[in-house]
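Sorry, I am new here, but would you mind making up a protein's amino acid sequence and the tokens describing how it folds?
***
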Amino acid sequence: MPSLLYKSLTDYNSPLFRTQFLNVSAASPPSPPPPNWNLSCRITSQSMSCSSETPLPTLRTVTIPYYELKDKDADLSLKIEEGFGPNGLGILSITDVPEFPSLRRNLLCLSSRLAALPEDVKKELEDPQSRYNFGWSHGKEQLESGKPDLLKGSFYANPLIDVPTNDTYLIQRYPSYCGANIWPLAALPELEVAFKALGKLIFDVGLMVAYHCDQYVSRGMKMRKDEGLEQILLRSRCHKGRLLYYFPAQLSNHEENGDSMSSWCGWHTDHGSLTGLTCAMFKRNDVEISCPDSAAGLYIRTRSGEIVKATFGENEIAYQIGETTEILSQGYLCATPHGVRAPKGKEASGVDRSTFALFMQPDWDEKLNFSEDVYIHKELIPSNDSLTFGEYSEMLLDKYYHKKT
């Protein structure tokens, strides 16, 4: 079962998906004319190894140096618009963040050790009550084909709060948010320290990104200080980190799945507010290597319908806009569908992949006010009504999977 709580999946049965490859609502408001920047100037054509298909364009993310980001007096509106605005890719990256390279390496190197723990130990780390959104998860999610996803394992935890609440009612009502962390304290004690350190850093930098997002949005719409993205994230207890480990696959598996543009991670749009991402780490026989296939990586579908490969540096933190932020910013900040393509070919055989994502999102009690022109999941939301983030999340889980019994 996929973790829809953090990633809202595409409706693969819709006619629009079948005709346009991804589901983008026909009710989407038209994009305004492009601002004073040229998207195509950052697009380069990259040859895709092991592929006879027409190469898709590769686009470097918009980058902001950390020293500029932490300056609250800096005007970053053009870069925020370029990365997150209606004509952007919904992603940008932050460079030169102190301590990030070492904290990234410390955590990602532990993913293979976690995946190699005895099955009975990993079973103790599972949490079915939260729909596997705390602790270890493997084979609980589904691929786009409907088959169980055995390609990767995940470990979920809140890097900021071990026990968000002791309220029994809330734990039962919102188990994916209100549950407690489950750490392998005896089997892999290093994991908790490394997970929390990297998660806290990505969160702190993400708050700086949110501050500049608020400055940009406030130029076009009225909002109180406590309604801004920064304050919503600051007071939330719902943030969730996900350490992912993609198991080494044999050549036959790569050839079978490699033609899919989303063979490692199905097409989806992030459900929360802001997602912090690390660049993936690849290894063969525990030795770090570069990605064995230049066609592998993160692919994004733009508002104009173009599919591009997005790249960012190993020592950069990338941030993606989620659906909740698009709704609350009334479209000034835009989320985009994306998927991850696995490497294929002989060089990809026996290669594993590790990465980390921090899903920054509102508190379960945070009121979300939906305007009349909201188009994301419109069928679930009464016009000009409000829901809490927890209620909204449960609606999505019930829609795409099954209702809690």
The two ends are 16 Å apart (CA to CA). The longest helix spans residues 190-217. Residues 300 and 338 are 4 Å apart (CA to CA).
